[in-house]
């Protein structure tokens, strides 16, 4: 059977997206006789691995971005590279024979090197993060961790997706919100699970990410987490928009305490277990439909 890529996303942080990613990683591994991988794409704050304290690292690779480097001995300071750069990453003062590339702004598109008649641009390698693979009791877990000070979240996520799992079923834990990092994570997904909560902020941000997923034309459904905690008409909104409700995970203080301690598998109330099984079964059927 072909591969199946599922992203877990949310319009805002703090709604339980990572917890649901880990729970589905666990439940789908039991429900489907296939290899399941988890990919933590929240590269600014990866935390899926805390739920697997016994995991062991099996592979790692430094994510490298190649940045242009200007040879001021060859450069005639014609400014063609400055003019072609859409990201304003090149600073040049001809009178001082000074030219440099801002690593934070450069997207390594290669346009500056292409327009340079003097062949004055080389490259230098800059580390933007670390990609690691871990073996958990459930299978492989891939994690991207952004270098402190780097702003290349989107590039690192793209590299992690290429470096990570191939084939089988993979769950991608997306960053929260609707930023470019989320768009990069959702790219080429087969299905998206949106996590929401019944609060005013939750409904507002759910509308934003539904708009995004619709624009990307990816099939999706919604899981309400901490159901019963809020009072906004979230389900009415889903019905009006004809959005599928995959399931509701009820608010449970014992489970919240267990989640805070990253101890969710051995302390899962039966009502939570039943809700996760329902969501996992629906996702299992989605694979057949894709």
Task: Write up what this structure looks like.
With 290 residues, this protein is α/β, with parallel strands linked by helices. It is built from nine helices and eleven strands. The chain has helices at residues 17-31, 80-84, 111-115, 153-163, 180-186, 200-216, 234-240, 253-260, 270-289, and strands spanning 4-10, 36-40, 56-70, 90-93, 98-101, 121-136, 139-146, 169-173, 191-196, 220-227, 245-250. The strands form two sheets. The chain has a nine-stranded mixed β-sheet with strand order 3-6-7-2-8-1-9-10-11, with helices on both faces. A two-stranded antiparallel sheet has the order 4-5. The longest helix is centred in the last third of the chain and has 20 residues, at 270-289.
Short description:
With 290 residues, this protein is of the alpha/beta class. The chain contains 9 helices and 11 strands.
């Amino acid at each position: 059977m072909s591969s199946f890529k599922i992203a877990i996303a949310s319009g805002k942080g703090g709604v339980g997206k990572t917890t649901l990613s880990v729970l589905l990683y666990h439940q789908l591994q039991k429900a489907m006789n296939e290899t399941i991988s988890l990919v933590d794409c929240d590269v600014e704050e990866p935390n899926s691995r805390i739920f697997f304290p016994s995991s062991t690292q099996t592979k790692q690779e430094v994510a490298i971005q190649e940045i242009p480097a200007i040879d001021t001995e060859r450069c005639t300071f014609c400014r063609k590279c400055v003019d072609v750069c859409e990201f304003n990453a090149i600073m040049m003062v001809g009178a001082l024979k000074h030219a440099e590339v801002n690593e934070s702004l450069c997207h390594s598109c290669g346009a500056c090197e292409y327009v340079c008649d003097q062949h004055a641009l080389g490259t230098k390698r800059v580390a933007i993060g670390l990609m690691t693979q871990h073996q958990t009791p459930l299978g492989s877990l891939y994690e991207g961790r952004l270098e402190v000070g780097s702003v290349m979240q989107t590039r690192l996520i793209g590299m992690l997706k290429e470096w990570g799992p191939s084939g089988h079923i993979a769950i991608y834990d997306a960053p929260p919100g609707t930023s470019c990092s989320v768009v990069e994570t959702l790219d080429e997904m087969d299905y998206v699970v949106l996590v929401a909560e019944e609060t005013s902020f939750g409904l507002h941000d759910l509308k934003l990410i539904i708009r995004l997923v619709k624009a990307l034309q990816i099939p999706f459904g919604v899981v309400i987490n901490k159901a019963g905690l809020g009072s906004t008409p979230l389900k009415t909104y889903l019905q009006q928009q004809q959005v599928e409700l995959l399931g509701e995970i009820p608010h449970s203080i014992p489970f919240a305490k267990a989640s805070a301690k990253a101890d969710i598998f051995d302390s899962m109330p039966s009502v939570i277990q039943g809700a996760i099984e329902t969501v996992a079964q629906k996702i299992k059927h989605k694979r057949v439909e894709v």
